[in-house]
Design a protein that fits this description.
The protein is built from 2 helices and 2 strands, in the order βααβ. By secondary structure, the chain is mainly alpha-helical. The chain has one domain. The longest helix is centred in the N-terminal third of the chain and has 37 residues. The protein is elongated, with a radius of gyration of 20 Å.
């Protein structure tokens, strides 16, 4: 059984989107960790809190990207199977 051209294109675009989202999630994680390290280095409580707030915002963005990934995966599961049967 072969995939239809439309389904193949949709799956390829989904893979590109997943890769982009996963990269964004990794970037957010790295930024959040950087902010956490910087917060630990600060002796000024206000600066420490600023870095902790920054970390929190990066984590929120990370979760947003993760949610988008899950929604994309869910929508793939709900995609009606459109297969082209090949005569044997």
């Amino acid at each position: 059984m072969l995939r239809s051209a439309a389904e193949a294109l949709w799956l390829d675009e989904g893979r590109a989107l997943r890769n982009a989202l996963s990269e964004n999630i990794r970037d957010c994680y790295r930024h959040a960790e950087h902010c956490r390290r910087r917060a630990k280095e600060q002796s000024d409580p206000l600066l420490r809190q600023d870095f902790l707030d920054c970390e929190r915002r990066w984590r929120l963005l990370e979760r947003s990207y993760e949610r988008a990934e899950r929604m994309e995966a869910l929508s793939k599961g709900l995609l009606p199977a459109k297969r082209v049967k090949v005569a044997a």
